[in-house]
Amino acid sequence: MFSQRIQDLLQQMTLEEKIGQMIQIHPSTYEGLIGKKDASENFTGPTGEVLMKKKDLYNVGSFLSVETAADMIRIQSDYIKNHRLSIPLLFMYDIIHGYKTIFPINLALSASWNPEAAMRCARVASIEGSVSGQHVTFAPMVDLVRDPRWGRVMESPGEDAYLNGLMASATVKGFQTDTYASPYSMVACTKHFAAYGAAEGGRDYNTVDISERWLREYYLPGYRAALEAGSSMIMTSFNLYDGIPASINTFLLQTILRKEWAYDKLIISDWDSIYEALVHGAATDSYDCAHKAITAGVDIEMTSNIYYTQLKNLVEDKTISIELLDTAVLRILQLKEDLGLFDNPYRFANEKEEKKLHLSLAHRAEAREVASETMVLLKNDNILPLSKTTQRIAVIGPHADSGDLLGWWNALGDNKDTVTLTQGIKNQLGPDGIVTTSKGCDIFTADDPTFHDAKKIAEDADVIILALGESQVMSGEGANRGNIQIPHIQQQLAQVILEINKPTVAVLFNGRPLDLEWFDANVPALIEAWFPGTEGGNAIADILFGDSNPSGHLTMTFPRRVGQIPLYYNHFNTGRPLETEHYTYGKAYDPGLRYRSHYIDQPNSPLYPFGYGLSYTTFEYSNLRLSSCEMGYTDTITASIDVTNTGKFDGSEVVQLYIRDCAGSVARPVKELKGFEKIHIKKQSTVTVEFVISEEMLRFYTATMDYQSEPGQFIVMIGPNSATYDAMPFTLHD
Questions:
Q1: Model's pTM, two decimal places?
Q2: Which domains does the chain have, with CATH numbers?
Q3: Distance of CA 515 to the CA centre of its chain
Q4: Is-cis flag, bond preceding 168, omega within 30?
Q5: Annotated active-site positions, please?
Q6: Which residues contact 112 (CB under 8 A, 6 or more apart)?
Q7: Is the Cβ–Cβ distance between 185 and 232 less than 8 Å?
Q8: Residue pair 613/607 in contact by the 8 Å Cβ criterion
Q9: What phi, psi does 293 have (nearest 5°)?
Q10: pLDDT digit string, tens, across residues 544-562
Q11: Could you report the per-residue pLDDT of 117-149, keeping only the tens digit for each?
């Protein structure tokens, strides 16, 4: 497992040098201690406690968030000169959806239903990050999410474990490639382990309280898929699980990770998360906290000082064995050797190449192509696509000519490098097109409540584009919302513009599913553009004018109202399910429905279901058939369906396979995604899509917590989304 070179190096290390390898600091600590910032001999962190003494600076094992090749080379050179054994540093960074060239946020990327696109995005991000000196990216984020109030849904692939795993695996392969010797490869650090996406109330850092069955059935598969794809590091989450913070949780880190999954690589804490076990009330003091974290298996502590101040005491008191410490250090050193840092501590960092590769034309072209594939057409009353002969277009709203399209966690992305919506439309129309722009209002406020300028240009236009939604700081870490509507001032603006009665399209920018009920009822055409990244404006224009036919499909359910949350497609039936949505809402008492699981003021159903997405063409599903209606444990069944493009445009469709297990030793969901195929169909053509169903696809955690299938009846469902499908039954026999 560990090379002889690494084992020999360990034997030469002092206890302090070993502990140093397990500590990660921010560059501000380094700059303070070497005198580039005001600092004393004892540099303090956000808690006011001593973070590090200057004499210990050159034992540290890794740095967080050094941004450029020049800084990496400077710091690495200084460290190697000053480290007694010349052990190089690891440099790590949050490269979530791009480094300098920014791609669509991850929730948008999953809406492409194209893992290969996720791989391409990760590859570009790896090139741009590694040439700037990064060795490790804190990606993929594979937390399964069901609550759009949580700001970090924008980082996730969505609400389905199967799709989540495919996107996670593709991202890992894009960063790490086949081998770390490959040019511009990086280490993928999977996060956040575990179940961080189930935070109560959609509030960041909050408690998670779910059953072990739900943990294993829904939340763990994404992490496991990433690790099986080769991810060499995993990050613990902030939340409690079963009352114990993840960073000191032996069930998560030892029982599942180390033993069941045989994971033998690095575990790193999230920012301050070991220290936060004290705040959770799950440790008595720093000594106890360090003991629990190292025993659970955390190899590297990010930014807080628990390991720095307490690991030596734990070893000297014989509370932990030196062998426990040594194993963690060996993992760290082995990764450094695997990356080739002992032979070339600067690896791919190169200032000249950095300038050449960042925002290169090829990378921008990739970002544009991927962004257009992520956009979801939510509604279209025969307005789109627009004709390029349209002479006068008014672009109105806070995002009309804004570069605020990158989304949270945008690394070195710069709004100034971003193609705005107005710029993208002008690029499409060329010099003959007349494009006028008015903000109308900011995200939350308007200087002129009459929207005079916006109304004026709208009245003079042939077509109006409303550019509405969130600012990029309204989603992401710490940006949780209790109200997931578009801010009311923007709805007021839209209402005023719609009264002009011109063809109107709303392009929506956001990092989460929103309550769009009013917009769905009132705006003729809706495009979910998410935060589309550096080439966002060009990609949206490609969609608007039909150069790209929309093919995105939602990977999170869009509720009608926030009161429906959590709302997800693979829910369970109640004992009293609502069998129809066709009744009059608002009744305080309805004898036929009172004692059914429903709301009296709105439907149970979402506004837009999981898997939903329209196209400029239309697709008809027909002739669902099964190769057999009976299946043994060693058999397979082929499910086939014909999909016809009945419209006027060539287009791509995401054909989705769902299966329902009708009865089991524990209740089973009403449906589960088990496969999909994204196919391109020429207009007026038919394609037959086939899915092979195996016994393995029918497994779940039974009443005895065994992962296996059970004989009985199943229903195959194939269609364009989780609410619209053709269905047929089959039976699994012993």
A1: 0.96
A2: 4-353 (3.20.20.300), 619-732 (2.60.40.10)
A3: 20
A4: no
A5: 270
A6: 118, 370, 373, 374, 551, 552
A7: no
A8: no
A9: -70, -45
A10: 999 999 999 999 999 999 9
A11: 999 999 999 999 999 999 999 999 999 999 999
